[in-house]
Amino acid sequence: MARKRYIYLENIFLFTAWLGLLVVPSLGEARGEGGYDVEVHSDASAMTLDEIPSTMSQTIAGEWSDKAGSAGGSHLSAEWKKNPKFYLTLKCVRPAAVTIDLYRSEFEWRAKCKKDSVGAMMGFYLFQGSKGTRESSTVVVDGKRWTETDFVPLHHVGISDLSLPPVFNESYVIMPATWEPNKCGRFLLSVSADCEFTLQGEQES
């Protein structure tokens, strides 16, 4: 009789999302492979656990790095366009409801934020097309042109229910950044939408 083994993953990210809670099991290091089971125990009277199609919800890892020259800081810095960029391509013919969240590990960033709480604040920019200029943004939120989130001294920042029209032969560009340059460390970018899409880093695009 085969024995069933239980492996408890240390790194399980819980994101609040438009579908409720988004659970992302992960290993401590990249490129690890293998099967796993997810069990949820709760005192809630009613609860469902469903797998979200990867074409409608994706999470991708990134890093601000001095070595790669990708810790450019906010738009107040001359090097700000060197931040990591991620390309969001919507596969629909109607405006899509999109939620974007940026996360970083409190364990990794706690000391850095304590040392410089203002400089280590984080946020992200959203542009249509690859030019990446704040002045020509076509993204509108509440009737106003929108280019970036607030920069916050927290480990999560996001925006929900963005209405993004599909763009022909182009992608939206999401660019996470810290407030000041040379603040290095890892982060997670999560995107959910009510239509299929692709999310790629610069090396994949």
From TrEMBL:
<feature type="domain" description="Peptidase C2 calpain">
    <location>
        <begin position="54"/>
        <end position="200"/>
    </location>
</feature>
<feature type="signal peptide">
    <location>
        <begin position="1"/>
        <end position="30"/>
    </location>
</feature>
<keyword id="KW-0732">Signal</keyword>
<dbReference type="InterPro" id="IPR022682">
    <property type="entry name" value="Calpain_domain_III"/>
</dbReference>
<protein>
    <recommendedName>
        <fullName>Peptidase C2 calpain domain-containing protein</fullName>
    </recommendedName>
</protein>
<dbReference type="InterPro" id="IPR036213">
    <property type="entry name" value="Calpain_III_sf"/>
</dbReference>
<dbReference type="InterPro" id="IPR022683">
    <property type="entry name" value="Calpain_III"/>
</dbReference>
<dbReference type="Pfam" id="PF01067">
    <property type="entry name" value="Calpain_III"/>
</dbReference>
